[in-house]
Design a protein that fits this description.
The protein is mainly alpha-helical and about 130 residues long. The chain contains four helices and two strands.
Length: about 130
């Protein structure tokens, strides 16, 4: 008997989904990730400017994934909501890398850079969808 599970195609971008959440009858959950999306388990500190780190972590894929979650829940994708969610997601997932480098990250500057990338994502999404009627 095989213990494999085929990760389905993503509903939000071309290619496979990042993974699936498996839930048992006691509502306990586990993540099953696609092999192309690996969790960072080792502390691999990153050093760089706030701009470089924002480019590394505030990715198009992250914005699309989180915006899709808002839409799935029937919520508007506003700047403030998306910005806060992206920051929370980055800090939760990349904490070890952001806070263990040889130099401290200027979080104020990092937030500003993420804000600029959030606005650019929303502007781009709006230009793709065309003017509202």
């Amino acid at each position: 008997m095989s213990n494999s599970y085929a990760i389905p195609q993503s509903k939000w971008h071309d290619g496979p989904a990042e993974g699936v959440v498996i839930r048992n009858k006691q509502d306990q959950r586990a993540k099953l990730l696609h092999p192309d999306f690996r969790e960072v388990d080792d502390t691999v500190p990153v050093d760089g400017s706030a701009t470089e780190l924002a480019e590394k972590f505030a990715t198009q894929h992250r914005f699309e994934k989180l915006a899709a979650k808002f839409e799935d829940r029937g919520r508007s994708v506003t700047f403030q909501a998306l910005y806060e969610q992206v920051l929370e997601d980055i800090i939760r997932e990349e904490h070890k890398q952001l806070y263990h480098g040889s130099q401290s990250v200027d979080m104020s500057e990092f937030r500003s850079e993420v804000a600029a990338r959030t606005q650019a994502f929303l502007d781009d999404a709006q230009s793709r969808s065309g003017p509202s009627n």
